[in-house]
Backbone:
């Protein structure tokens, strides 16, 4: 996300040119996109027919990648986490076990989505018509609320100090509200808290 601001051409090569190359193979494509194609000004869950307006290089190049897909499923999801790779859950677990307090943004709200639940929903989605779909966990929270839930579920004694996005000072702008909902009857994912519990069992 922030790296894309420093290297917009690299982001374009990955998200736009890379998608174009995959599409050129001629097979139906599942393209994973993001809630960050929206600007967060709506203040209520975004549905598939809402007009995107990305705030960042990452969001813009993901949206441009969507437009490369001619035959397939565009899957927008949000705040992905899982038991592998670098993500918010794994970062908070590491920080929480080594600190008494962490500062976490409280003015961004989204729907943390467990990768395992997204994979299951994607399999079901392949039985639906091709096009743009929103697949994200039920419920919503801020990053600070998510961090508190992680510590609670993992029995970690660490305080969360709420800060603003401005205080964090990241290069890329994030939407203040980017919860996704489907108006098309997409497969429903479990609540994000259930996803968190499932993820922690695998760690």
Residues:
């Amino acid at each position: 996300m922030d790296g894309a601001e420093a290297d917009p051409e690299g982001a374009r090569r990955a998200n736009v040119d890379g998608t174009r190359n995959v599409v050129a193979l001629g097979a139906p494509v599942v393209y994973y996109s993001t809630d960050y194609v929206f600007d967060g000004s709506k203040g209520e869950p975004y549905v598939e027919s809402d007009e995107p307006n990305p705030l960042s290089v990452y969001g813009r190049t993901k949206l441009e990648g969507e437009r490369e897909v001619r035959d397939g499923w565009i899957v927008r999801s949000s705040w992905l986490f899982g038991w592998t790779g670098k993500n918010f859950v794994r970062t908070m677990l590491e920080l929480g076990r080594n600190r008494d307090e962490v500062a976490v943004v409280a003015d961004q709200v989204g729907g943390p989505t467990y990768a395992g639940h997204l994979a299951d929903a994607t399999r079901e989605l392949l039985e639906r018509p091709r096009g743009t779909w929103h697949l994200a966990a039920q419920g919503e929270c801020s990053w600070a609320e998510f961090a508190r839930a992680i510590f609670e579920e993992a029995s970690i004694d660490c305080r969360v100090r709420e800060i603003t996005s401005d205080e964090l000072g990241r290069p890329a702008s994030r939407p203040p509200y980017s919860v996704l909902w489907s108006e098309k009857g997409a497969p429903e994912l479990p609540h994000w808290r259930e996803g968190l519990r499932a993820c922690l069992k695998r760690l």
Summary: The mean pLDDT is 97. The first strand starts at residue 29 and ends at 34.
